[in-house]
Amino acid sequence: MKFPKTSRRKVVGGITAAMLALASGTVTAQADKPLRIGFSMARTGMLANATPSQLNTYELWREQTNARGGMNVGGTKRKVEFVIFDDQSKPDQAVRIYEKLITDDKVDLLLAPWGTPFHLAIAPVLEKFKFPVVGNTAASVALRTVKPGYIWFPTSAIPDRIGVELTAMLKSQNVKSVAVLSNVLPFTKEIKNFLEPELKKAGITVKVTAEYPPDISDMTSTLTQVKQANVDAVLALAYPGDSVLYAKQAKELGLNNPLHFVAIGPTDAFFAKAVGATSAEGVVSIAHWSPRAEWKGSQAFYDAYVKKFGEDPDYLNSALAWMSLEILETTVAKTGLDKEKMRAMISSTTFDTINGKVKFDGVQNSITPTAFVQTQKGKLQIVWPASLASSKFEAKKGW
């Protein structure tokens, strides 16, 4: 059957209008549909005291994103909804959760859990399901063994690099002798394994070296040895919980060494609250971020975090969490939810973040320097390396 020309134009026009209406309806439906983003977090168990600064950062980002109308997903804004499970501080539990998030909950995107063992544990799941995740709170030379493609690590706080840079900082302060105390958890144990050979090469004497379990409740005997050794610097390779124990007992025993390095803990607001502002003053720790004007958005992030939570963000973990969100958001705005397009973009793009530019060489950030901060007058200042420093190192004057 043949339609007259005028009729054919009406039919084609009608079909086109219907298709446009259908497409418009689809876009509207997508915009009205929440963007479901899943992750696990240690809300209970041994690591629960370490995770609030990361979870707070996620929550701040969601709040700001939704206030802007939602996350840009390939040109369509969608409100963000979190799907969160407690991994109970157990990496094997995180593995089950992430598989469930992908297969049962069918989330649109994933965020990272807290800590190196958890990132390493979920990497095979992400590879299996071809589901990209921008990591954050993970640091280990073992990260380099992860198959590239579906997980990336923006931190520069890698143990072998920490060993080199911490030794260089100690030399710059004319440190001749140290005590090295290490929690046996993977990250801090790795730092010790790389640090001690570097100290030896630099001619810095290790007068005391000791390891302790994660659940340690008393460091008195070890710290008594440290006091008797009269070293220039004490290097406490601690996690958040034992960082507080170390500081309190160092104060009790009068460890008045001019340099105290505490690996993880002092960059989080809980540390000064737990040990007191005077005790926190002068402690050096691992971090490569501060609210610097030359890093786009860094001051705005700091101000927003303080306004919402009434305390400073963690200069390591909060910053890393926000960086991972910036990278994810920039990517999804261009690729939508196509996982292979996301993978390709994250693997090849240089991103602007609150910690400067980030580009991944395989799985690892190849740009950001390894750095250390020190609490000075209640604020964290980058004191190493000189290229990033916002202040000069100051000797610790008691507890």
Describe the structure.
The chain is of the alpha/beta class. The protein folds into 2 domains: 33-157 and 293-365, 3-Layer(aba) Sandwich (Rossmann fold), CATH 3.40.50.2300; 159-286 and 372-384, Rossmann fold. The protein is built from 13 helices and 18 strands. The protein has helices at residues 5-32, 52-67, 91-103, 116-129, 159-172, 186-201, 220-229, 240-253, 269-275, 277-280, 298-309, 317-335, 339-348, and strands at 35-41, 71-73, 76-78, 80-86, 109-110, 133-134, 151-152, 177-183, 205-212, 233-237, 259-262, 284-286, 351-353, 356-358, 360-361, 364-365, 372-376, 379-384. The strands form 7 sheets. It has a 4-stranded parallel β-sheet, sandwiched between helices. A 3-stranded parallel β-sheet has the order 4-1-5, with helices on both faces. The chain has a 3-stranded antiparallel β-sheet with strand order 12-17-18, covered by helices on one side. The longest helix has 28 residues, at 5-32. Mean pLDDT is 92; it is low at 1-13.
Write the layout of secondary structure elements.
Elements: H1 5-32, E1 35-41, H2 52-67, E2 71-73, E3 76-78, E4 80-86, H3 91-103, E5 109-110, H4 116-129, E6 133-134, E7 151-152, H5 159-172, E8 177-183, H6 186-201, E9 205-212, H7 220-229, E10 233-237, H8 240-253, E11 259-262, H9 269-275, H10 277-280, E12 284-286, H11 298-309, H12 317-335, H13 339-348, E13 351-353, E14 356-358, E15 360-361, E16 364-365, E17 372-376, E18 379-384
Parallel strand pairs: 1-4, 1-5, 6-7, 8-9, 8-10, 10-11
Antiparallel strand pairs: 2-3, 12-17, 13-14, 15-16, 17-18
Helix pairs in contact: 2-12, 3-4, 5-6, 7-8, 12-13
